[in-house]
Structure to design on (179 residues):
């Protein structure tokens, strides 16, 4: 009688299989050993621009509101201070690559063991040396103080309501001072 014997892989065979798999994984990720210098520099540029734009946004809104207030009946002068909670947020486009690796093993006792490894890598998409922006979110206004001269009581209430509507903030975050 001729019996076909089924030989299970031994330690040497498993070591060769794992080494080959690791080598294939390393070769499939070509940027693994490259420098991330360009991406880091692009991120630093975005942070610097964000700080500058946070200041710029509040100042721009202050100037616009001051000009608007000078058009209100009786207002002879206006000074505005706006505080913001957050910075301008720029959302950059990211390229995401995902890799899934599954392994099933059967031990000598007939038991089955399986494992799964998911690797995800995100890279910022660059347009030249700058990150490619998908959208820009303006800072959230935390509070507004307005100092005006010459306004009537009715105008003060209207100014408060206008500031609330413009910046979508509740009344307790708006202070109008009439000198």
């Amino acid at each position: 009688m001729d019996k076909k014997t089924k030989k299970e892989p031994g330690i040497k065979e498993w070591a060769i299989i794992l080494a080959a798999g690791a080598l294939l994984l390393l070769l499939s990720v070509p940027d693994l050993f490259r420098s991330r210098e360009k991406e880091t520099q692009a991120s630093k540029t975005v942070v610097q621009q964000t700080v500058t734009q946070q200041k710029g946004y509040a100042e721009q809104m202050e100037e616009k509101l001051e000009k608007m207030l000078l058009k209100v009946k009786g207002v002879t002068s206006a000074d505005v201070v706006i505080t913001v909670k957050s910075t301008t947020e720029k959302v950059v486009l990211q390229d995401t690559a995902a890799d899934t690796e599954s392994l099933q093993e059967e031990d000598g006792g007939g038991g089955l063991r399986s494992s799964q490894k998911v690797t995800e890598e995100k890279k910022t998409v660059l347009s030249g040396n700058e990150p490619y922006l998908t959208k820009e979110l303006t800072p959230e206004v935390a509070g507004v103080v307005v100092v005006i001269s010459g306004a009537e009581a009715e105008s003060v209430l209207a100014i408060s309501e206008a500031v609330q509507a413009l910046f979508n903030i509740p009344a307790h975050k708006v202070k109008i001072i009439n000198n």
Remarks:
- The mean pLDDT is 82.
- The first helix runs from residue 11 to 28.
